């Protein structure tokens, strides 16, 4: 079954602030029943990056922690 990600204004703003890229756009799919099925899609000027929540080390009670973890997975 296909999964559709929606543009995430908050994640896009966070990553743009961290990277300085005005071209970056972040999309999110969140499965409320199983977070391991949740993921981000990050589109930059020259690539599309898929990151599963399972790949990110974060505090599940803190969305900011999830965004910081996403940044670490991609850029560090």
Task: Tell me what the structure shows.
The chain has 76 residues and is an alpha+beta fold. It has helices at residues 9-19, 63-75; strands spanning 6-7, 25-29, 39-43, 48-52. A 4-stranded antiparallel β-sheet has the order 1-2-3-4, covered by helices on one side. A hairpin with a 4-residue loop joins strand 3 (39-43) and strand 4 (48-52). The protein is globular, with a radius of gyration of 12 Å.
Task: Summarize the model shown.
By secondary structure, the protein is α+β, with helices and mostly antiparallel strands. 32% of the residues lie in helices and 22% in strands.
Radius of gyration: 12 Å
Ends distance: 32 Å
Provide a count of the helices.
2
Give me the side-by-side strand order of the main sheet.
1-2-3-4
Largest sheet: 4 strands, antiparallel
Helix coverage percent of residues? 25-40%
Spans of at least 5 consecutive residues with low confidence = none
Shape: globular
**Helix and strand succession?**
EHEEEH
Mean pLDDT: 94
The secondary structure category is alpha+beta
Approximate strand percentage: 15-25%
Number of strands: 4
């Amino acid at each position: 079954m296909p999964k559709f990600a929606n543009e995430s204004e908050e994640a896009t703003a966070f990553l743009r602030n961290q990277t300085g890229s005005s071209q970056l756009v972040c999309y999110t799919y969140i499965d409320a029943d199983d977070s391991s099925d949740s993921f981000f899609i990050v589109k930059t000027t020259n690539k599309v990056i898929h990151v599963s929540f399972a790949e990110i080390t974060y505090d599940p009670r803190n969305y900011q922690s999830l965004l910081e973890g996403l940044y670490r997975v991609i850029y560090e």
